[in-house]
Write a structure and sequence with these properties.
homodimer; about 25% strand; 5-stranded mixed β-sheet; alpha+beta
């Protein structure tokens, strides 16, 4: 089909130029567009619908685990940002400053929130009185601004949408439990909704959140072998609660600082979704997160009965909870539509023409494998439901296999340097824990410690860099 | 009960000082708090849960009518804001300006969106090509900033949460149909969800949105007789589409400017909800929008079997879809709890003690009427469901009655001046349509034209101000 060639021609092959492939895919598929403000993106309805599915999944999980939503101001006074030393050093260089309200210069500059620990802690200090009110389990959905120099839609933008959880607890153990509980929710969301396998673990001191005691992360591997930090959960211990003087009367009527966590995932996940699953024809969306799960394309739709039957089928599929679209536009050919929905990553396409109807069948095409199978119309709703489930599992396993193929073990520094110059991926290696070795790896290979995974292996006894005793296995990779 | 007195004492009586009553109610009931940034509020979980119920209701209606969500940047370049003359005059005095990103001064100032017509039109101009793509039916949920001098939580704040719809159409008729369709959705939402009767109609030229051809509004009457503009829907005709040069090829392949609408409601609705329904004991929340619809307070909860039966009841109520809480905290007495949930406006309270359980009954107390009735435990789920429905209807009718009591008809200007100095309310009056008469009313009485309602009555033949021929009946009121 000529349209097919034309479309494929417009998307650069990922083998030729992965970055250009990514840009082509997101532009051609109406997920997002560049805005007139440098580094800021417009999320178009098709992209936003993916975000809504992520929101819905997580919001339910957060509420089931006792969290409530709230909303804090967009603007934060400079003096509040300055209260936690490491935090301000981490964020001040990349915030947007509001200096005027209407025609008046403000007495104090306000920053557009890059994250909300400071203003939330200021309020928590005002509210919290007694241990009886603990734990505080709160979350907010909002946008944040971080002034980035080099930006790419979804992956790194000067504004992005996210959720940020902020909790307080009586003990460090409870804070740690919360930190890990949320990381688990993120990991499961990636697996169950996005069909993405994650490596989860602890960030190094250098890579942790500005102001955290410990940062935990979920890391995904992209098609090009680069890693994407996809969500983080921070145990903030008493760093902020002391800086903001949050206190409460404990069970023994003594004044205490509570323990604190924060955690977030963002629209960055959509970038990961694309770079894990999609191909040279365009998007491939896992069924559970796809805005449209099935598209029905009628063939020879002017023939009597075709559209009627197609609409009936749409209803039958909707009745079993499938998100389905029927494209009966007379302006485009079926061939054009096939390519359009293939490019947009709709998991299943159903082709239905007069002869199919006569024979009581329809043609069903899978986006991930491009397999086409004739199926009986009568049993289509159940069969399509099953097929969508199968696709989810298959896509997860394909992503897992891809990651395993691109995961390497290195026992010497030379092996790392040589291998990573040829092929990107996760490199498992032993590390002594010192910053000098970490810095050397980054400087000389471009790779960073993505995390110390929970699932440890003792690959050897010594650090690949300095040869000293090492008991930490880390995942190294170049990253987005 | 002593706690009761104490709490009532802390909420100022609305008859004594309505503004203070409002402030007391929102502060005492944990809906909202003041933030360290002047004019910006923190929406606490209990307040935010009300907003989530409003969002859920509207988002469903918008999607059922073909609208899709999207997200546009928070920051808008000054040059874009300047493109529509009336718009910039209306908004420029009240925007917050970002002048620095990190340490660098920006080449062009960016305003924090006060509303998004300008940046959305800029993108629509880039996207729209053909009539085949029309209508554009889009919406976004976000926060906006308008630098206000005098602020009050929910009613007028420098930042608020809202939704803003932005649509494009082939004809002015379709744009008008959309404008009114959305106004109808807002009006129904107020009635069906918030139990608030609205007067709906057209704004005067002076009161319309900066840049609109016509603004339609829903107006509610508060307990103190002042009006609250609760939602607006604008027919923007081609004002912005010409200013931003949005064009498309029509059915005859000619270049045309599309017709345009925008519309929004905000967290201001929560302020209205409070000032229509609540009383001197605190909040009274209509059941459909209440975060918690029923609270179960166990009596003598240490007695064996009481808590077990209470938890069983909770489950039974949840099974029929009721949002229910059980307060089994040992730190507070039942009396304290009664007052707490009464103040927080929970629609129904169920008291359950050992003797009740023995007799197979529970005491059910309504928040709106304060009536208490014994009901059989066995039938409680159905009876409570019915009671919640009754409450919704009763609260709507009480609000309607209150509004009717405070709605007056005046046939002369003197009658208006005299009456409004004594009692606030909606004043129906004839108006010739000229700005001079409108300005005189505002200057001399403080009342403004809230709208020209769709339901017109010909009260007389002449304008109450100038005595010239008049064919428009308007609603006048002092307003928030």
């Amino acid at each position: 089909m000529s349209e097919n060639k034309e479309f494929v021609k417009e998307i650069t092959k990922m083998e030729d130029d992965f970055a250009q492939w990514y840009t082509d895919v997101i532009r051609k598929t109406d997920l997002v567009d560049y805005s007139p403000v440098k580094g800021f993106m417009v999320i178009k309805p098709y992209g936003y619908a993916i975000w809504e599915n992520i929101q819905q999944y997580l919001d339910k999980k957060f509420k089931e685990t006792g969290h409530k939503n709230m909303y804090f101001p967009l603007l934060i006074p400079e003096s509040l940002l300055n209260k936690e030393k490491e935090h301000v050093e981490g964020f001040a260089p990349e915030v947007a400053w509001v200096t005027h309200g209407g025609d008046n210069e403000l007495g104090e500059r306000l920053c557009v929130r890059p994250t909300s620990e400071t203003i939330i802690c200021h309020m928590y200090a005002k509210w919290l009185k007694s241990y009886r009110e603990l734990p505080y389990l709160n979350n907010q959905w909002c946008s944040v601004v971080r002034w980035e120099k080099a930006t790419r839609p979804f992956l790194r933008t000067s504004e992005f949408l996210w959720q940020e959880g902020h909790t307080l607890h009586e003990t460090q153990e409870e804070a740690q439990e919360e930190t890990l509980k949320i990381l688990k929710i993120y990991e499961e969301m990636a697996k169950e909704l996005l069909a993405i396998p994650m490596v989860s673990g602890l960030k190094s001191e250098k890579e942790k959140f500005a102001g955290a005691e410990a940062t935990y992360t979920i890391e995904a591997l992209m098609h090009d072998g680069k890693a994407l930090q996809s969500g983080t959960s921070h145990n903030l211990a008493q760093h902020f609660t002391k800086a903001f003087d949050i206190t409460y009367l404990d069970r023994a009527s003594k004044l205490q600082h509570p323990y604190h966590t924060s955690w977030g995932v963002s629209t960055r996940l959509i970038g990961g979704l694309i770079m894990v699953h999609s191909d040279n024809r365009g998007l491939v969306l896992p069924p559970r997160v796809a805005p449209t799960q099935v598209v029905i394309v009628p063939i020879m739709q002017k023939k009597p009965g075709v559209l009627d039957r197609a609409y009936e089928l749409k209803k039958d599929l909707e009745a079993v909870g499938i998100r389905v679209e029927l494209d009966d536009s007379p302006n485009y050919s079926p061939g054009w539509k096939f390519n359009e929905y293939e490019m947009k990553g709709v998991p299943l396409r159903i082709e239905l023409g007069p002869r199919d109807i006569e024979n009581g069948v329809a043609m069903v095409a899978r986006r991930d494998t491009l397999d086409k199978n004739q199926m009986e119309l009568e049993h289509l709703p159940e069969m399509v439901s099953e097929l969508l489930e199968d696709m989810h599992q298959d896509m997860y396993h394909a992503a897992l296999e891809m990651r395993e193929e691109k995961t390497y073990t290195v026992k010497t520094y030379n092996a790392l340097v040589e291998s990573i110059s040829e092929k990107q991926g996760f490199y498992k290696a032993m590390w002594c824990g010192c910053e000098a070795c970490e810095a050397k790896i980054k400087e000389e290979t471009g790779a960073t410690i993505r995390c110390m995974p929970f699932e440890q292996e003792q690959l050897s006894e010594t650090c690949i860099v300095c040869g000293e005793k090492a008991d930490k296995m880390v995942y190294l990779a170049k990253a987005y």
